[in-house]
Write a structure and sequence with these properties.
The protein is α+β, with helices and mostly antiparallel strands. The chain has helices spanning 3-8, 16-24, 105-119, and strands at residues 33-36, 39-41, 45-47, 50-53, 65-74, 77-91, 95-100. The radius of gyration is 18 Å and the shape is globular.
Length: 121
């Protein structure tokens, strides 16, 4: 066996790769949970880079920067990502609309995998 096959995974059994892929394809039933100031919210809308929470009953104000956590489970692996957001709009009818910076690349890939599974892609 060569070093290349060891590092590239050439010695894997035929079913190993498929089993790992199947666990990531479990379709989550809910969007990620958003935790702001120790309060859990399920967003009404969630896409890469922004979300909407309605109704929102926290203390944020328009144009305020805030820290929050995205919490989700992908393939039995719990993930908690710390993020920085900014309030775009905050009204009674719109709820809290916020944009957020992309997390670190490792967590961004996990979030993309989760969103693909959630959307059924």
């Amino acid at each position: 066996m060569s070093w290349l096959s060891i590092f590239s995974g050439g010695n894997k059994a035929a079913g190993d790769g498929k089993a790992a892929g199947d666990s990531r394809r479990e379709r989550p039933s809910t969007p990620p949970k958003i935790v702001i100031d120790h309060h859990d919210y399920v967003p009404e809308e969630f896409v890469m880079g922004s979300f909407r929470i309605r109704p929102y009953d926290g203390d944020l104000i328009a144009k305020q920067k805030f820290d929050f956590h995205l919490v989700f489970d992908i393939g039995g692996d719990p993930v908690d990502i710390g993020c920085i957001g900014i309030v775009v709009k905050l009204t009674e009818e719109a709820g809290l609309v916020a944009r957020y910076q992309s997390p670190q690349p490792f967590y961004e890939r996990k979030l993309i995998d989760y969103l693909k599974a959630w959307k059924g892609l």
